[in-house]
Amino acid sequence: MIRPWIIDTTLRDGEQAPGVVFSNTEKIDIASLLADAGVNELEVGYPAISHDERKSIQKIVTLNLPVRLTSWARAKWQDIEDACTCGTEAVHISFPVSAMYLELMGRDYVWVQQQLQELVPRAKKYFSYVSVGAQDATRADAELLESFVLDAEACGADRVRVADTVGIATPTSLIGLIHRLKSVSHAALEFHAHNDLGMATANAYTALEAGCQAVSVSVTGLGERAGNAALEELAIALKLSGKYETSIDTRKLSSLCTAVSKASGREIVDQKPVVGKSAFQHESGIHCAALLKHPLSYQPFLPDQVGRNGHEIVIGKHSGSASLQHYFSGKGITMTRGEANHLLALVRTTATEKKRALQPDELEHIYNTLLVKHG
Ligand SMILES: CC(=O)SCCNC(=O)CCNC(=O)[C@H](O)C(C)(C)COP(=O)(O)OP(=O)(O)OC[C@H]1O[C@@H](n2cnc3c(N)ncnc32)[C@H](O)[C@@H]1OP(=O)(O)O
Ligand SMILES: O=C(O)CCC(=O)C(=O)O
Asked: Strands, DSSP E only, in 232-276?
């Protein structure tokens, strides 16, 4: 079994989602829940933001959670100095590597090299683990990126983050990129995904397949723009793979996502994989008839594996007689398939008129109407 290193960045990139602010108490709760769920490392914040940010990180450090805590910093000594006051075991130093980012900052690769040479050894005096980031790596010149990985390794960096900052990677392009970097260097690689093309989780998974040792994710995928790779999606995908083993207890994912959704003010959309309301809801007759015989017939895993209560059968336009028999037997009413089919016609027309699934009182009304009609 391969044991990937899972880094959660809900408290750093997650909080960078527009309009999201976690209170210090919420940060402590989220960090504790993440540690309890078995995540390996928490990117716990960006100390240079403010005194208050540093205080919240210091507080999390005092909890002595069984995870590595990492502070984020730009390639600037002042940021690293701010991180030093927080007491985290690790620091992550982010460098621009694409032509566009270097130009916007008025820098070139010589400056990147100089900063690596100056900052990494200096940071190593204060932190037992130093990670460096290649920001906008997927739009960078591939040769320059190779040099960055080699230079970072030579300066003593413990890990190099390959960041798909604007979320343009695809699984295929990523395999090529990671293989290329691995062919020139033995540095430990981390991949950091963004979801602009809806591929963040697939890309995080693919990065591990391609040989990255670590990936960064966030709870519910909360993060800049369309967000990051979702912790809960990746964790269950790795579990189902039969090839990866993580320390994450997937049964804790549902409550973790609920806590982050509440603290961030971002509702979990119904069709969200793993934790969305409809992720384990079924209406289609063919699916429900099979699900009543075997819960894995139309679900990839059981709801309780991710801390959910169970699947739900919804009665609506697409229902079949097996669903209706099941529903009414739960109300103490036994009906034949023929009787269920009579009901079904009225269920379909009512659901079509209302353009939605039916509620218990509506189903009771339909049942009573037919009962009176047919004696
Ligand atoms: C892809 C990512 O997620 S990157 C992380 C993004 N996160 C954040 O921005 C966190 C919140 N940000 C903040 O609180 C503020 O922007 C601060 C404290 C970081 C900086 O604030 P300010 O000093 O007012 O600068 P401002 O935000 O306007 O501009 C960013 C500065 O960082 C510099 N910068 C950007 N990336 C890097 C880097 N990797 N290394 C060094 N410097 C960098 C820019 O060149 C610019 O410098 P300049 O002011 O000399 O032109
Ligand atoms: O840490 C880094 O270097 C990259 C940060 C990031 O969030 C990104 O590029 O998307």
From this structure: none
